[in-house]
Amino acid sequence: MAQHSAPHFRHATRFVLFAFCAAVAALFLVDILYIDAPAAATTLGSRVVFHALLLSISCSLIATLLSVSVAVPSGYALSRYPFRGIIVFDVLVDALIVLPVLIIGISILVFFRLSADLPVVGGLFAWVGDLFIHRVPGIALAMFFCSASYAIRVMKATFDELDPRTEQVAMTLGCTRSQAFWRVTLPLARHGIVAAAVL
Predict the structure, then answer these.
(1) CA–CA gap between residue 138 and residue 132 (Å, rounded)
(2) What percent of the chain lies above the pLDDT cut of 90?
(3) Which is nearest to 189 in space by CA: 112, 56, 111, 79?
(4) Distance between CA 13 and CA 105 in Å, rounded?
(5) Number of other CB atoms surrounding residue 73 within 10 Å
(6) What is the pTM of this model?
């Protein structure tokens, strides 16, 4: 009886998958059909649009490098070094995933504005704020905060899947903890790093 029901279940799950993908493909198709080709060509040829595309790509690349640079050690720490109160860090990492992008951007702006009024270090924060607020580094910083949590989650999941005994074997062969990480764990995590960068 169980064997007879298995094909039906497989067909049902595939149907749901195909229906969802068909709906996504339909959304892309209607977007393509809605585009007016001459108007799109004129718009894409505009100097303003070209500048906006160049700005978006450059800021995205900077944010990607920052996100991966933070995600690899953070994901490793969350995966390999559990400690009391780690749930707080888990919540803080996930908080940026559920917050709207607008709130993240406004929070960065408010941080620099309020930090500039602090005694002693206020001048430093004001100077740093002038470098970021309404400038390219500020755009990259906002993109970083919007994407870093996704990258950290991917890297944690990647390190969770890797057997820690490989590092222990490397250390018994003479590697330090950091050498075992760089020479053994990081190469094994390369697919996760790529996935984190894509996100």
Answers:
(1) 4
(2) 34
(3) 79
(4) 39
(5) 12
(6) 0.76
